[in-house]
Amino acid sequence: MGKVVFVEDDATIRKLVQAAMRSSPHEVHFATNGREGLELVLRVRPDAVFTDVSTPEMDGLQLADEIRARSEVAATKIVFITASVQKDQLERYAARGAAAYLAKPFSTAQLREHVQRLVG
Hints:
Layout: E1 3-7, H1 11-21, E2 27-31, H2 34-44, E3 48-52, H3 60-68, E4 77-82, H4 87-95, E5 98-103, H5 108-119
């Protein structure tokens, strides 16, 4: 099936995502910061990237800008993982070409639903 990259610096959330995706048919990759995430996206060429907005070295918004600026991965679907879901923040995510956002805290069911909807 499809490929998904998760960019998340919080080990607890990474473990939650790993548990949620364990039985998934998708190829799942993890990065702990935005710079690693970009390298992974360029190497793996995923169908979707789920990125925390606040990651070290390069935040999720900068990561989205970098992805959009590179023709070989520009069409990658991006989902922002965030605790901030105020209207102005959601508008910033949409301006960065977000396919969706996932509000923290989220359930494993919500995560799987987003992956299924975006990747198949």
